[in-house]
């Protein structure tokens, strides 16, 4: 399968409530306090590590984490609630084989993309794990495509399901994952900054909060986090 993404001029079919940017509401952009100041250390290429190995390892790690987030809304992202794959008014279309357009609602789109990525990650010709196997010459381009797909899925979750994460009190984990993701794709130039600009406001808020939390002693961070969590429960 060949996956090509296109932006459409169609307006989102989501309700006004879903189009509201819940992720920009006051105090909704909380990250896990204990990781503040550590995320940028996690994404750096370790000494003596091959860049291809590092990209491969993180491709799998982010797939696992994003798959968990997809699972949170698997029963909430349906054909009736998400009739198209979008992030606000921006719509993404999926082409399969010979650039033939296939109309899909968001859940079908996400499931198709994630299944394809899982197959790629398990393909020894693309993501070799055995001794003697080499990475393909276009490996970086393959990884860029994967991470762009990850971003589109995360963007859909933020625009149309963030309020559900907030209600379940799982938004801090989602935000921490996303900030980690942003640092990683920026460090290794995996996504065009113009595409990331779709969530620029959120990225700026999360970075600002992380910097503020990193300046606090860990005990103070956790106390503040527990206080906010207790008020929201």
UniProtKB/TrEMBL annotation:
This is Uncharacterized protein. The gene is 100638424. Zn(2+) binds at residues 77, 82, 156, 161. Keywords: Metal-binding, Zinc. The keyword Protein biosynthesis does not apply. InterPro entries: MOB_kinase_act_fam, MOB_kinase_act_sf. PANTHER family: MPS ONE BINDER KINASE ACTIVATOR-LIKE MOB. It comes from the Eukaryota. The lineage of its organism: Eukaryota, Metazoa, Porifera, Demospongiae, Heteroscleromorpha. It holds the Pfam family Mob1_phocein.
């Amino acid at each position: 399968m060949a996956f090509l993404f296109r932006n459409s001029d169609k307006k989102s079919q989501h309700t006004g409530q879903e189009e509201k940017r819940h992720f920009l509401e006051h105090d909704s952009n909380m990250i896990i306090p204990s990781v503040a100041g550590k995320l940028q250390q996690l994404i750096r290429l370790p000494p003596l590590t091959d860049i291809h190995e590092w990209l491969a390892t993180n491709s799998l790690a982010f797939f696992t984490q994003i798959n968990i987030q997809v699972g949170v809304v698997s029963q909430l992202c349906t054909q009736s609630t998400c009739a198209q794959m979008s992030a606000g008014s921006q719509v993404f279309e999926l082409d399969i084989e010979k650039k033939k357009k296939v109309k899909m609602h968001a859940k079908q789109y996400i499931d198709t993309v994630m299944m394809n990525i899982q197959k790629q990650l398990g393909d020894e010709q693309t993501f070799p794990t055995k001794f003697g196997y080499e990475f393909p010459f276009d490996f970086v381009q393959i990884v860029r495509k994967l991470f762009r797909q990850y971003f589109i899925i995360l963007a859909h979750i933020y625009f149309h399901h963030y309020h559900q994460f907030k209600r379940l009190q799982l938004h801090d984990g989602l935000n921490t994952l996303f900030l980690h993701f942003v640092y990683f794709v920026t460090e290794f130039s995996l996504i065009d900054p113009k595409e990331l600009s779709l969530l620029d406001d959120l990225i700026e808020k999360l970075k600002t909060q992380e910097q503020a939390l990193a300046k606090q002693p860990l005990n103070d961070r956790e106390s503040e986090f527990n206080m906010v969590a207790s008020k929201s429960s």
